[in-house]
Amino acid sequence: MNTPPSTGKRRPWDIVALLARWLLGGLFICLGLSKVLHAAEFLKVVRQQLMVTDPALSGLIATTAPWLEVLYGLLLLTGIAREAAAVLARWWLGCVFIYMGLHKAVPHPEYFLKLVRQYDMVTSPFLLNSIGAALPWFEVYCGVLLLAGVAVRGAALMLVAMLVPFTLIVLKKALAIWAAVKLVHLLFSLVVLKKAMAVAAVSGMPFCAVKFDCGCGAGEVFICHKVVENSVLLLLAVWLLTGRGRQLCLRFSLFRKKAQGSD
Q1: 3-class secondary-structure state, position 211
Q2: Contacting residues for 225 by C-beta, under 8 A, at least 6 apart
Q3: Domain map of the chain by residue range?
Q4: Which long-range contacts (CB under 8 A, 24 or more apart) does 16-20 make?
Q5: In which element (H, E) is residue 132 found?
Q6: What's the rounded Cα separation, in Å, for the pair 110 and 199?
Q7: Per residue in 104-149, pLDDT tens?
Q8: Rounded CA gap, 160 and 180, in Å?
Q9: Which residues pair with 150 in a beta bridge?
Q10: DSSP states along 212-263
């Protein structure tokens, strides 16, 4: 007599998807509330980076977008409309990478090349020019695949492969800038001021106050905010890797399966 398989146990991918969904919900709520608390700074980003010059439209975006992020985070935390939330995540991730890729490639590609050079990742001019020329369009390509729903897990895997090393490189540069500022403050204080003033100067600049253009296509960003944004993008890609977001896809997988697991 055959016994039906147990349905009470979660598969490993289901556990990963659940944890990623909860963490994503919390991060979206944090991002939305941070924009609400710094409304003037976010309005400047909308007008300068998104190039929305109309005051009414930019004000509307700056007012509604943060609360939409909070609402989406609550949807992820509660698990309401889970599959619809996954489809929105796929579309949003695709749009973000299309925007970032085009922003690097179309207006001033030489500026992105300079930003890539400052990380000292490669020394060969050929490799440097290849990265500067190919990476933006590869981001656009992966974004189009996610929007259309073609090879979703493959595209998500490529985004993970780009986001992890890039985030580590950006974090390394931010630490270098922070350490350099600390060293300047310390040397100045030791020469000019007393030891107490040196301690005050050393502790004067928090790490999250470090701000620079990381080459992501959004201009100058605060490092802590950028790390959170990259974490959101990374977790969205991992969530799609677990098989979510199958609805409204042209071809979710390039290889047909005999049976697909439940979401």
Answers
A1: strand
A2: 34, 208
A3: 12-80
A4: 16/238, 16/242, 17/239, 17/242, 17/243, 17/244, 20/235, 20/238, 20/239, 20/242
A5: helix 125-148
A6: 41
A7: 888 777 888 887 787 777 778 888 888 888 888 999 999 999 999 9
A8: 30
A9: 251
A10: EE-SSSS-EEEHHHHHHHHHHHHHHHHHHHTT---TT-SBS-SS--SS----
Residue whose entry in the numeric block shows the structure tokens 């040397």: 187
Q: pLDDT for 32-82, tens place per residue?
A: 998 898 888 888 888 887 778 888 898 899 899 999 999 999 988 888 888
Two tokens at 79?
């698990």
Token code pair at residue 57:
């439209």
Lookup: tokens for 43: 């309005």
150 Ramachandran zone, left/alpha/beta (phi>0; psi -120 to 50): beta
C-alpha span between 216 and 167 (Å, rounded): 10
